[in-house]
Specification:
Layout lengths: L2 E4 L5 E4 L2 H10 L9 E5 H9 L4 H11 L4 E6 L1
Antiparallel strand pairs: 1-2, 1-4, 3-4
Length: 76
């Protein structure tokens, strides 16, 4: 199962399903085929929600953001 983590401190955000990972890969821009890092801000969350993101995935990303306006996450 893929693991999401914060790039700035390596802290694990949580596990996501393969389907949730596929959704992120399909929805977000990657710099190259091996890119596993994503930038999230409040607008990105809204876009993901509008495009049918799993509510559990959105909640996980929101919890990683906390009070911050943006966060960089990666998966492995």
């Amino acid at each position: 199962m893929p693991r999401l983590y914060r790039i700035d401190n390596g802290e694990t955000v949580g596990q996501i399903t393969d389907a949730q990972l596929k959704f992120l890969v399909d929805q977000l821009e990657e710099e190259d085929g091996d890119d596993k890092e994503y930038f999230f801000d409040r607008d990105t969350l809204e876009l993901l929600s509008d495009n049918g993101a799993d509510p559990d995935l959105l909640a996980l990303i929101e919890s990683a953001m906390g009070d911050e306006d943006e966060v960089d996450l990666a998966w492995e």
